[in-house]
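Hi R.,

Here's the chain you asked about this morning:
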Amino acid sequence: MAGKCAMRGACGGKSSWSPQLPCPYDGPPVEPESDEFRSLITSVCGPQYANIPVCCTVEQVETLQSNFQQAESIISSCPACRNNFREFYCSFTCSADQHSFIDVTATQKTSTGQTAVKSLDFHVGETLGKGFYDSCKDVKFSATNGYAMDLIGGGAKNYTSFLQYMGDERPGLGSPFQINYPTSSHNKPLDYAPRGCADNELSSRCACVDCPTVCTVLPYQPPPGSGPSCHVGGMTCLSLVLIVFYAVATFSFFSGYSFLSWRRRKNRKYERMALSAESSSSGTGPSRGLVGASSLAFARDGEDSSGVSSMRNLGRTQSLFDPIDVLQPRHYRLNTVIRRFFYRLGIFCASYPLVTLALASTFISLLNLGWTRFSVETDPVRLWVAPTSETKLQKEYFDRHFGPFYRTEQMFISSAAPADSGSRTEPVLSWEHLKWWMKIEEEIRALRSSPHGYGLEDVCFKPAGPGGACVVQSISAWFGYDLDDYDLDTWQDQVVSCANTPSDCLPDYGQPLGPQYVLGSVPDTSSRRRWLDAEAMVVTYVVSDSLNATERARAEEWERSLRVYLTDVQMWAPEESGLHVAWSTGVSLEEEISQSTNTDYKIVVLSYLVMFFYISVTLGNGSTSPQEGGLMKLAWKWTQGLSSTNPATADASPRWIPAISRRIFVDSKFVLGLFGVFLVVVSVSTSVGLFSFLGVKTTLIIAEVIPFLALAVGVDNVFILVHELHRQNSLHGPNAIVSSIGRTSQTMSPTRADESIDEEERARSLLSPEERVARTLAKMGPSILLSSVTETVAFGLGALVPMPAVRNFALYAAGSVLLGAIFQVTVFISVLTLDLRREEASRVDCFPCIKIPSRITLPPDTPATPKVGALTVFMRRYFAPFILRDSVKAVIIAAFTGLFVSSIISIQHIELGLDQRLALPSSSYLIPYFDAVDRYLDIGPPVYFVSTDHQVSSRAGQQHLCGRFTTCDDFSVANTLEGERKRKESSFIAEPAAGWLDDFFQWLDPRIETCCRVRKANPSVFCTARESDRLCRPCFEGREPEWNITLAGMPEGEEFMWYLGQWLKSPTDENCPLGGKASYGSALAISDDKSEVQASHFRTFHTPLKTQSDFINAFAAANRIAEDISRRTGTTVFPYSLFYVFFEQYGHIISITQEILGLGLASVLLVTSLLLGSWRTGTIVTIVVALTVVNVMGVMGVWGISLNAISLVNLVISLGIAVEFCSHIARAFMNAGSGPGLPADHPEGKKERNDRVWAALGDIGPSVLSGITFTKLIGISVLALTRSKLLEIYYFRMWLSLIVAGALHGLVLLPVVLSLTGGPGFTEVDDDEQEWMSSAIRRHDQEYALVVSHIPTTLAPLAETLFHKTCRPFRTDSDLGDSD
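And the predicted structure, written out as tokens:
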């Protein structure tokens, strides 16, 4: 049956420059008129049209050929898509059966007066339509990191949308008339089986990049966080096991404890009945008190304790005559050496204070000369990335070979009006908004910087070279940066058209601008996206960056001018246009962080000033006599006097001016406290000078944190020294003559309670100020040494971490702590002596030139007791006895175990990262900008996969890189990246990679006649775009073997480099979108002699990254991909993106945390065990310190504190402060008693350890509580006022957590554990013990009989022998080193 046409021939266009329109023709097809026509139609549509009649003319075939050339550069990489495209339109134009599937529905008059087709219906069968679409849907267009479907099909998601887009009347790749594709059934639609991209025919088969079905499947890679894990409901198995174990253990423990308590009460009742019967028959027998328990509590504060056995009344005589104590004396030689050293050091510094101060000043001055080399490191890369970091080295490699990454000036323009409903804002696109923003862009282009007058043209990135256009990614580019050719009725069509086909709206810099770059938060429907309903316009100015300081300074100067301009725009935009502008420039982040630091600095300084004032006032608060009180007590009495309504004092009127004792001005320690704080500052300053001289740069973290740490450690030492000197004055100072001596003798020697003190003993009890200060240092120096050495070693080990910020912090912290301790045991001791002399000379604290005469006082009716502060009374009378109860111990152990379990559970929820918004002031304009990035930006940051050692001029090297040719390696760079793109949830890659090698070889395709051309007369000369086709021919025309998709015949060696050089100079334009100048001009690094490609990169984009975990996972995924490619191809490939260098730390920050904390705890164990002389006690201290750090980390999980370099530094601080809380208590525990201590399994061991814990808490607890806890809590409370989220989260929250956790563990848990399993103590003759011992030896003859009278008759001979053996070895020399 003969065919029939529906249209044939050309009848003119709508205008003289419009495309030709076909004529309606209801007749038979016509045989080609000439051999030229036959040859033309065969070359364009295939040999099947060579010998059949057709429904087209020569003019139509020539137009068809021209249109094919436009699509050729886009789809030629996939033969199936290319050939289906040609066959489809050849059938539409020339098929002899045209009338059976085409119905002309409307006609129109052309400019020549002829009748032409206006619209028609094209009936296409599903098999053809779906197959045609499937063959083209995955074809990539590398130059735009997009798809060919975006250009030829408007990003269609199915074949009907694809056909409808091609049929819409539109210039360019669209139709010159309307073609409709009805979906209703038709008698004979055009329907045949099209080519498939996976067909084995060479004319059909496509490469893996364009046809997923032919790809080798990559090994399965689970998405981050989806690996094998054990969960029960929403709880991890570890959490469940811990909870169950804790519940069972706690229940079992308390059940067992209750049962044992019941048995104990029952046994006691039976024993009381038996003892009552025995005493009634045999009288009172001997009884024994606490074995090894000295009467420290009774002797030091004069307080009686209920529940203490009668043996306690023997005072220190008991420990002399207890057989267990004296038969098992324990001494620690290292302890004796250390005490002797500190005693002699104290004697020297106290005796020669001016010499000490002069030597220290010289030492400090020399080290502070290092400030001349002081510098602050502000470069984030050099701060957070190790010098040997692989990512840092890769960044430097990228910068050297391809240039630094661009600087971006980005703006988000959104509607300021609230949305009607939901969380979406009003659509931003409107005619008025476009006109307003176009005016802003004109002003930005005209903006000039000050003082050099640089403009955008001077600093922008120009991909086409210095004479090219700037890259400005804005919706205005779709309008040619000018709205004069558009109006209220046409602008919407232009937006939709350009969004669907970016290649039809090329900006002046020649690269297609996809809608994802200029429109934000676009609603997506099932069929297509609603571009006009976008919530934001995204505008990006790309500015060139450079390693050259001068060029960078030029860009920064223009950016600062832009910042000033946009600040004004942001202020008046809502009122003027109803729009909100969020923006950022290349200099914004650094400037805003610097501004935040300046704001934080004020808060930090205020915090330190409050702590300074508290320390200065608190040190002297308890140093006056009990009758007079200190400044705090005076203020309290004055407040009571003002508000008193006591009837007993009704006759006395309120006193507005309080009665101030003259001794308050003398006993005040304000200057001493201020000097102690000054020493802390000096230690920090000296540490900075030392390490600055050594070339270690400081950081903002060091400036804010190190003073806090040094103050926490140093102030505690100051409090300990001052409080111990206070005790020494009570025992051996001038006031001891009338108050303490009588009591001391009375309590220490009960046998002389009713005798008067002779003058010789009175004189021997008085010690010089130097001696008292030396004894103070001898007593507390070892404790200071223990804490300082432990912290210095722990911090010093942190220097092993390669991260510069952490390493420098560790060095500065170790130096500050060590120098602070040295100054406190030398310089502060000298000043302490001078202050003691001033006080005993009755000179005013702040004005030592003023001397107040002593008041004449009468002896009190009752002997005075040594002055005891309120904290000491609280610790000894209430706190220590309470926590040492057996039932309370059980509750404490259970509570802290529960705290540990909950912390472990919470630690599992700690996230990694540091949101950069936290580092900004709360009022920063960058916060809305980062919020807009998260909300509106629909594309992630670019990522480059860099190949460094591929021999791309060889066939093997080409096969490792390419992806669009059949002989490319299955796991080549291009194929692997395409395979990873298909699993975005694992790879975080969203766009097809820009493969330069594939586009280069496509550029050589002779079927694309407008790309690579050479002179016909001289093929060694390339043709320019302006040269006539008569003079030029395609480069590979007539080549043997001809160009094909197998890589056979592709250039190699010198020929490859010759063609490559021309490709990189070819412009990227409408005539040849495959030109490499704009798209790939910076993608290759070629050697100076142009003989080889040293490196090249493949550009793609990440998926939108919204959270810190997204960035971390994207970095990890990119590195995994690069490692896979390197392993499979045997070459070196690495990924690079701008943010990688900042997120590399999170790849190993967990291991760094474990390493630094593990090394710190190991050093704590080693040093504490060595200096305490007990591995058991050292282990306990280390465990408590570890629990403190674990609890702080548990709070991080609950309080939303992420793990990063800042929180890691704070964890190191928590370790140091936990050591400070624990070390003093532990040492006091080890040296609290005069006995040797008892093993844990000894029947009396628990009572002996309880006594030592009680004494340790009474002696050291108040200093630790006031020196660290209260000081830091007061300082931290000021940080609550900050407006900086960084200070609030990483300083206020973490420091508050570590202070509370440190205090609870050091003052509650540690004493309880020591009382249960603490190591045995050491015999240490204290100063007051030595004084009594000296007197006891002299009074031996008079006291011996009386002492023995208190001993049962059966033990009298043994007591006599033990008395001689115990007392005689002690000397009366006041040198503690000799007495020890």
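The first helix runs from residue 35 to 45.

Let me know if you need anything else.
M.
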